[in-house]
UniProtKB/TrEMBL annotation:
Species this chain originates from: Pseudonocardia halophobica
Gene3D superfamilies tied to this protein: Winged helix-like DNA-binding domain superfamily/Winged helix DNA-binding domain
GO biological process: response to stress
Location of the HTH marR-type domain: 57-189
Top-level taxon of the source organism: Bacteria
Cross-referenced InterPro entries: HTH_MarR-typ, MarR/SlyA-like, WH-like_DNA-bd_sf, WH_DNA-bd_sf
Protein name: HTH marR-type domain-containing protein
GO molecular function: DNA-binding transcription factor activity
Length: 199
């Protein structure tokens, strides 16, 4: 494998799965396989070293772990259906939620080099998902925005995701849902924060 291709593969893997979409809005059922890079989370806490926080009786920690794994499986399955890699769908999701962005901003969001972002945008533009246009604030740069096809992809996935979550919370009170939402936001902030290193 050429050095450039191998480097791009590593960057793609580093980004991890992301929101991806299918034109039909259908999500495949192939959600059973756990990617190798997530195998550590699939083991029992007692099977791992340095996992003091996830003891056998910590049901909340195990539930969060299961939710993370389920989300990864969902995104991976939807991504495979759309034929786009993690960086590609991450770009579409960013543009859908935040609006037009510069290639540099996209590279920083994905954690990839600007050269890799340029190649990624070339592929997405060739597939009709995005387009580049001049940046009125900086003539040396451009803005990337969604084309209708890309917008439909992301909208279909978010609609499907919202419907599935709606089934999970059906019948629960507003107070329960508010408590769960608050907990998930706090957990997300802590997990994504600094110092996420086992030791």
């Amino acid at each position: 494998m050429p050095v450039r291709a191998a480097r791009e593969d590593r960057e793609e893997e580093a980004v991890g799965p992301s929101v991806e979409v299918v034109e039909t809005g259908e999500v495949p059922d192939r959600l059973s396989a756990v990617p190798d890079r997530h195998a550590i989370f699939a083991r029992k806490p007692s099977d791992r070293l340095g996992c003091r926080a996830m003891s056998a009786d910590n049901e909340v920690a195990r539930a969060v772990r299961d939710l993370v794994l389920a989300g990864d499986r969902y995104r991976g399955a939807v991504g495979r259906s759309a034929g786009l890699g993690a960086s590609g769908v991450g770009t579409l999701a960013l543009l859908f939620l935040e609006g037009p962005a510069t290639p540099g901003a996209i590279a920083r969001h994905l954690g990839i080099t600007t050269a890799s972002a340029t190649q990624l945008l070339d592929r997405l533009e060739a597939a009709g998902h995005v387009r580049r246009r001049p940046n009125p604030a900086d003539r040396r740069s451009c803005l990337v925005e969604l084309e209708p096809v890309g917008r439909r992809y992301v909208a279909a996935t978010y609609d499907d995701f919202a419907e599935r979550i709606g089934r999970a919370v059906a019948g629960r009170s507003h107070a329960e849902m508010a408590a769960v939402a608050g907990f998930l936001r706090a957990a997300s902030s802590i997990l994504a924060g600094p110092g996420a290193v086992a030791g």
